[in-house]
Amino acid sequence: MMIADLLDQEDLRERFLSLGIPVTQEQSPDACCRAALAWRTEQDRERKQALDEVIRLLISNSDSLLPEIKAAIQTCFPMNDVH
């Protein structure tokens, strides 16, 4: 039996950090997503698009997300709000 490699809190944090989003190890997935959303409002078009693309990729692969990661993304980044 093959065990799926699910995206966890550390993976989410690493993706956000790679974009320059200030998140910490202590933050929950929901807090990380809220920090990313707040960060997005202060960014130029290129950085906003980079975050939007990461979110689109995560949403499109939602079967590979742990439930708490999926819930945090869906709460902070409703599909129709990512453009």
- Fraction of helical residues: 55-70%
Beta strand % = under 5%
Tally of distinct domains: 1
Poorly predicted regions: none
Radius of gyration: 12 Å
Structural account:
The chain has 83 residues and is an all-alpha fold. Helix content is 59%, strand content 0%. It has one domain (9-16, 28-81). It is globular, with a radius of gyration of 12 Å.
Q: What tags apply to this protein structure?
A:
mainly alpha; 83 residues; single chain
Summarize the structure.
59% of the residues lie in helices and 0% in strands. It has four helices and no strands. The radius of gyration is 12 Å and the shape is globular.
Task: Please describe the topology of this protein.
Layout: H1 9-18, H2 29-41, H3 45-60, H4 67-76
